[in-house]
Amino acid sequence: xxxxxxxxxxxxxxxxxxxxxxxxxxxxxxxxxxxxxxxxxxxxxxxxxxxxxxxxxxxxxxxxxxxxxxxxxxxxxxxxxxxxxxxxxxxxxxxxxxxxxxxxxxxxxxxxxxxxxxxxxxxxxxxxxxxxxxxxxxxxxxxxxxxxxxxxxxxxxxxxxxxxxxxxxxxxxxxxxxxxxxxxxxxxxxxxxxxxxxxxxxxxxxxxxxxxxxxxxxxxxxxxxxxxxxxxxxxxx
Length: 237
Description:
Strands 1, 6, 7, 8, 9 and 10 form a six-stranded antiparallel sheet that branches. A four-stranded antiparallel sheet has the order 2-3-4-5, with no helix packed on it. Strands 14-15-16 form a three-stranded antiparallel sheet. The protein contains four helices and 17 strands. The radius of gyration is 21 Å and the shape is elongated. The model is unreliable at 1-18 (pLDDT under 50). It has helices at 2-18, 122-127, 135-142, 208-211; strands at residues 25-29, 47-50, 57-62, 76-80, 83-87, 92-96, 99-108, 111-114, 119-121, 130-134, 149-151, 156-159, 168-172, 177-186, 189-197, 212-221, 231-233. It is mainly beta.
């Protein structure tokens, strides 16, 4: 009887993990070609921040409109009654050349929480031309526009199916194993196509086909258990 009980609990937890909702990601423009933002994806009107979902407005998050040429372009501040308090750059992620986006680390109904503990209303973001996108979808959407993704240290297992118990195809390390994402996902896993090169495409002077050695298809844990990316990419060659 005890064995059956523990087996049922294990089965429920496994199914819960596989269907895990991803609650971390970025705040980016709805229109990728929007020119209304400079350096940080925050509108000039700022964004209201709250102490908790549906709580008290603490002030607005935004850039300093009076900053001089020596100020860092990505600096953001909490504006409380005209008093500016700097917000740590760890609340931002570089998503393009000198372009930053706010990172959210929790989602609760119509609110998301940024790293400094403050909450932002999603409906306000939508009204101001922004949207939230979880890390999984962000990486998939970005995949066609990057040279390729590469496993972060200490490496990633490429497996036949989305399970740690599945057959291991290859351990992905270094930048000669290029990862392309597909739209097929399960929990924190994503189906991928991996190309092994003899030389990195950025440094090779030859035809890409000449430096391709082999191609593999399988699954990787695209996100770690804390729902952050297990891959990195080059912004340019």
